[in-house]
Design goal:
By secondary structure, the chain is mainly alpha-helical. The protein has helices spanning about 1-10, 25-40, 65-70, 85-105, 110-125, 125-130, 140-150, 155-175, 180-200, 205-225, 280-285, 295-305, 305-320, 335-340, 345, 355-375, 380-395, 450-460, 475-490, 510-515, 535-550; strands spanning about 325, 330-335, 430, 465, 500-505, 520-525, 525-530. The strands form 2 sheets. It has a 5-stranded mixed sheet. The longest helix has 21 residues, at about 85-105. The model is unreliable at about 555-560 (pLDDT under 50).
């Protein structure tokens, strides 16, 4: 918690402070939560009918941490209008990562000083801090919690069932935080069941199978409840193999080291960032000092004892490398033809490089375990080695302290005083053409800036309106095409709604201007805004702004008003 405050300042914990969140994926997370808090209760939980309307989306697809959004929704009436929970969530993720780091270290050493030093390396893991820009993906403590459940002793069947209850709880939590985390947690839980049935003999295979079925049903139920499935939203997407991990991921700093060079990698492989940190790499070299006979038998015995865990982590790493495996950015093996029949499933994991995280934490845990075992009779040496590694990690990894993710980034908001004159009968904000992030459909092509959808979503939220534009992780392109074509036909034929603000892309302005007296257009806050039909205060504002500064001519072909 103290480190989070050192990075972002106390203001980052203020849930009403937005001026460090106006960039990147944070904006869509906040908008998703805001529209959910104002939405009526319905199914699926997390439904946001006012966001990207009339498309279907939920807080799951806006990465608005569904469980947190759901818990806060009943208190929405008492929360400030600009309330956001990203700062509190990130701080909690760091604190829980530290807590689980201590729990893991306690399995190797009874000394509190060693536990704290080792846990600090979990908190300062570059792979965790790198994810600050995508808040829902920062719950890495769930992965370290599963590692702890794997490694903790289980003397009897009773303790095994207690472990399974903990694993089930983490699976349910992960399913309501982010699907990528849920897949990793479920895979690690499956390895845990195999260990209990095969190696420890605390469960029969039938019991393990039933437990796995229960876990899958629980995860599937949460996915269905939050609308990840069953909402006619496509699960697959393009890009599998692009956003992968390179096989040098654990040692490639990608600019996160003052000393080590940035090794070659492909452009999209930042998603597979798995750098251990210079301090941890030095710690690994120290742990491996001397003849292999000094440490290899112990390491091999521990690896055999946790064979199912290592097997699943290895499979997740292969998924991270994807069907085109690269070493230093150079392709060494391609399995795309072999994997072609499985692409409908694999395509759901476009950012497959993220599956490198379990390997990262298993390697980090193994290094710490080996250090504490090798010098178990000399605790002063352990303290010195861990402290030295921690200092190297802190000093060499500049990005840990650069505060890049807490830089000043004012929240995109329309500031003109004209918005105070907006009539209450306006219920919708429609960008024309609609801005649908990552859509490549011709009818959505526009010249809006990336954060313009945030400005209009913010206005719609504060005025109790809906917006047709936004950013969601998944959407149905057929539905987008249908909605887009219907909107285009309405505009071209002059069927404009009287309760709608049309925010018009400059190249499309002529379509509205040719409607003559049926529409009133003006320029407010640097945007072309048009309304139809009813008189009102805001219509007069548009007419005055048009008189002061005539709208520029456009090259759009004229149409005949109906």
């Amino acid at each position: 918690m103290l480190w989070f405050v050192a990075l972002g300042g106390v203001r980052a914990l203020d849930p009403t402070y937005l001026d460090w969140l106006g960039w990147g994926d944070w904006t869509k997370s906040i908008l998703g939560w805001w529209f959910f808090r104002e939405a009526p209760w319905g199914f699926p939980l997390g439904r946001t009918p006012g966001y990207m309307a009339p498309l279907t989306t939920t807080v799951g697809f806006t990465d608005s941490t569904p469980w947190v959004s759901l818990v806060l929704k009943p208190f929405s009436g008492w929360l400030p209008q600009d309330f956001q929970f990203i700062g509190l969530w990130l701080a909690s993720c760091l604190a829980l990562q530290g807590f689980m780091g201590v729990k893991l270290m306690a399995l190797f050493t009874p000394r509190a000083s060693h536990q704290l030093l080792g846990a600090a390396l979990f908190v300062l893991a570059p792979v965790l801090v790198f994810r600050f820009g995508h808040d829902a993906l920062c719950a890495h403590w769930m992965l370290t919690a599963l590692l702890w459940l794997h490694l903790r002793p289980r003397p009897d069947a009773r303790s095994a069932w207690r472990t399974l209850r903990g694993a089930l709880l983490i699976n349910v939590l992960a399913a309501g935080v982010h699907p990528y985390l849920a897949v990793m947690v479920l895979a690690l839980s499956t390895a845990l069941l195999v260990s209990m049935a095969w190696q420890e003999r605390h469960l029969t295979w039938r019991q393990a199978g039933l437990a796995l079925l229960a876990g899958c049903l629980a995860v599937g139920g949460v996915f269905f409840a939050f609308g990840y499935v069953g909402q006619d939203v496509r699960g697959g997407t393009q890009g599998f193999g692009v956003y992968s991990a390179d096989m040098l991921s654990l040692i490639n700093p990608m600019g996160w080291s003052r000393v080590l060079p940035w090794l070659p990698a492909r452009s999209g492989q930042y998603e597979g960032f798995g750098y251990l940190g210079t301090g941890v790499l030095v710690l690994a070299l120290v742990a491996l000092l001397g003849r292999p006979s000094a440490w290899w038998p112990q390491a091999r015995a521990r690896a055999r004892a946790h064979g199912p865990l290592l097997a699943v982590v290895g499979q997740l790493a292969l998924l991270a490398f994807s069907t085109t495996m690269t070493l230093g950015g150079t392709t060494v093996l391609s399995m795309r033809k072999v994997a072609e029949p499985f692409m409908p499933v694999l395509g759901m994991f476009r950012a497959s490089g993220r599956f490198i995280w379990p390997l990262h934490y298993v390697v980090l845990t193994g290094i710490l375990a080996l250090v504490t075992w090798r010098w178990r009779e000399r605790p002063v040496v352990i303290t010195s080695v861990l402290l030295g590694a921690l200092l190297i990690q802190v000093v060499d990894t500049e990005e840990l302290w650069a505060q890049q993710r807490f830089r000043s980034a004012p929240w995109p908001r329309l500031r003109a005083t004209e918005w105070t004159q907006l009539d209450s009968f306006y219920r919708h904000v429609v960008l024309y053409p609609p801005y649908i992030h990552d859509s490549e459909l011709p009818c959505t092509e526009n010249t809006f800036a990336r954060d313009d959808y945030v400005r209009w979503g913010d206005l719609a939220y504060r005025k109790g309106m809906s917006t047709n534009s936004g950013y969601a992780a998944r959407f149905n392109e057929r539905h987008v095409q249908q909605v887009c074509e219907e909107l285009k036909a309405d505009v071209e034929q002059g069927r404009l709604s009287a309760d709608t603000l049309y925010v018009v892309d400059p190249p499309k302005l002529a379509l509205f201007q040719r409607l003559g007296e049926l529409v009133s257009c003006g320029n407010v806050d640097g945007f072309n805004v048009c309304v139809a039909g009813r008189n009102g205060r805001f219509r007069e504002v548009l007419l005055k702004s048009s008189a002061r500064a005539p709208l520029p001519p456009t090259a759009e072909s004229p149409i005949t008003p109906p």
